[in-house]
Specification:
heterodimer; A: 159 residues; mainly alpha; 2 domains; 8 helices; 0% strand; B: 188 residues; Butyryl-CoA Dehydrogenase, subunit A, domain 3; globular
Chain lengths: 159, 188
């Protein structure tokens, strides 16, 4: 025998959950295979839910859940608070790159000139003139600062 | 139609950036005390593993807190938790079967705890069903969710739920009857 959907299913399901049957609904259930089957399933599941909810195994402690949520919340707040610093770092890096590009042609001449002035028999007084050029120091400083900014940005993004 | 019980925005199963815990600890404890046991019962019956159910339970509460979801009252928050838990279950079953988008017909993983399913005739009967059928039946008949809410929770089309629920119910009834329970019998 097969069953088919019945229009009274919702009422029967609610009554099976609550146990509150009207005489008419009970009479219908007793004469309808679909609703009898539904009653069996709903009553079985309800009883099963009560049994499972009452098992002896202790529930997980909620304190670590709360603590983890708090830590995650603080971490997000920290990232929000340091967002402005990160943007300043990005701007500094962008400026560094821009300056580096602006000085690139002159830098190439400077570097090639510095190396052409070097020889195996160079004298010590020649060294400060090529190595101590203010432009070289400036460019190297920019590169170092840009590298530091890049490292900071990477570290923040990894977090 | 069963009354609407889970009418909520779809919760994410991934981290939600930029949101904070809005509930205070006392409210969280109250919600936990009220909902943890029935939620664990749902998870246990769906996955058949007490340890896994406890893990998913904690993850569901954690994600609710991290989402910053406030809810109108405890019932609203409880329903939201069930949505998160259902998504976690779905993710769990999909991870176990990466080659298929469908949940397995039966859960036969090593962590599958037969003791949970066989605790009662009902547990044994439910164990014979697909995880999705178990979730569907539980949400509809224990939690009182509407077809639309069940569809949203399980990622299915609302139009399909009525027939799917009907077939799942028939399968469960058949299993219950095989264990000696009959439609005319009241389960106490």
């Amino acid at each position: 025998m097969t069953t088919k959907p019945c229009p009274h299913e919702a009422s029967v399901a609610a009554a099976a959950r609550s146990g509150d049957w009207s005489p008419e609904l009970k009479a219908h259930r007793d004469g309808c295979l679909t609703c009898a089957e539904l009653t069996l399933v709903v009553a079985a599941l309800t009883a099963d839910a009560e049994e499972l909810a009452g098992i002896d195994a202790p529930l997980p402690n909620p304190a670590p859940i709360w603590l983890r949520a708090q830590l995650a919340s603080r971490e997000r707040q920290y990232h929000r608070a340091t967002r402005a610093i990160v943007w300043v770092q990005r701007a500094a890096m962008a400026v560094s790159v821009a300056i580096g590009i602006a000085f690139a042609p002159g830098l190439w001449e400077l570097v090639s000139g510095a190396f052409s002035g070097l020889s195996l028999s160079f004298s010590a007084p020649d060294l400060p003139r090529s190595a101590g050029s203010p432009l070289v120091v400036f460019v190297v400083s920019l590169v170092v600062l840009g590298g530091l900014a890049l490292w900071e940005l990477t570290a923040v993004n990894e977090n | 139609m069963i009354p609407m019980a889970l009418s909520l925005p779809r919760p994410q199963t991934t981290d939600l950036p930029g949101r904070a815990v809005t509930m205070d600890e006392a409210a969280f404890r109250h919600l936990y005390d009220r909902t943890a046991r029935p939620l664990r019962a749902y998870l246990m019956r769906s996955c058949g593993d007490l340890a896994l159910a406890d893990d998913l339970l904690q993850e569901a509460f954690l994600r609710m807190l991290r989402s910053g979801f406030e809810g109108e009252d405890d019932d609203h928050r409880k329903n939201y938790l069930y949505r998160i838990a259902t998504n976690l279950l779905r993710d769990h079953f999909r991870r176990k079967r990466p080659e298929s988008d469908q949940v397995p017909e039966r859960d036969e993983s090593p962590g599958h705890d037969e003791a949970v399913h066989m605790r009662s005739d009902v547990g044994g009967a439910m164990a014979e069903l697909a995880p999705r059928d178990r979730q569907m039946l539980w949400l509809a008949y224990v939690e009182g969710a509407s077809h639309q809410e069940v569809a949203k929770a399980l990622g299915l089309r609302t139009a399909s739920i009525r027939s799917m629920l009907f077939r799942a119910r028939q399968r469960l009834a058949k299993q219950l009857q095989a264990r000696g329970l009959r439609p005319e019998m009241e389960v106490s």
